[in-house]
Amino acid sequence: SLDKTFENYWYSKPLTRWLFWPLHLLLSLVAHLKRWMYKYGFLKSYVSPVPTVVVGNITVGGTGK
User: Fold this and answer.
1) pTM score, two decimals?
2) Phi/psi at 19 (5° precision)
3) Were both Cys, which of 6, 8, 9, 43 would link to 37 (CB 3.0–4.6 Å)?
4) Other residues' Cβ atoms within 10 Å of the Cβ of residue 26
5) Cα three-residue angle 49-30-21, rounded to 5 degrees
């Protein structure tokens, strides 16, 4: 599968990881900008009128243990 191919590439060729550095910088900038916009009120958070339960990190088929 493509995921395994990428994973094998990532772990077998550590010297080529620098190719992904620009993407890392771009995504970091976007994440920090979004956090800053929420912090200073440029973006507004949604407040639900009723109590809400959020469930995260559900995996289908196990976690590969």
Assistant:
1) 0.53
2) -65, -25
3) 43
4) 10
5) 145
Residue type, 12: S
For residues 17 and 38, what is the distance between their CA atoms, to the nearest angstrom? 32
Q: Dihedral through CA 63, CA 12, CA 20, CA 28, nearest 10?
A: 40
The amino acid present at 47, given as its one-letter code, is: V
Over residues 39-65, the pLDDT tens digits come to 999 999 989 999 999 887 766 666 665
SS3 content of the chain, % helix, strand, coil (to 5): 55, 0, 45
| CA–CA dist 31, 60 (Å, integer) | 27
Q: Which tokens belong to 15?
A: 């010297």
